[in-house]
Amino acid sequence: MVDTETARTIVGIVGNVISFGLFLSPIPTFITIWKKKKAAGFKPDPYVATVLNCAMWVFYGMPFVHPDSLLVVTINGFGFCLELFYVGIFLMYSSWNRRRNILLALLVELIFMVAVVAITLLTLHTTGKRSTLVGILCIIFNIAMYTSPLTIMRRVIQTKSVKYMPFYLSLANFLNGIIWAVYALLKFDPYVLVPNGLGALSGLVQLILYATYYRTTKWDEPEKPTSEVELSDA
Question: Which in 101, 150, 202, 216 has the greatest CB count within 10 A?
Answer without folding.
Answer: 202
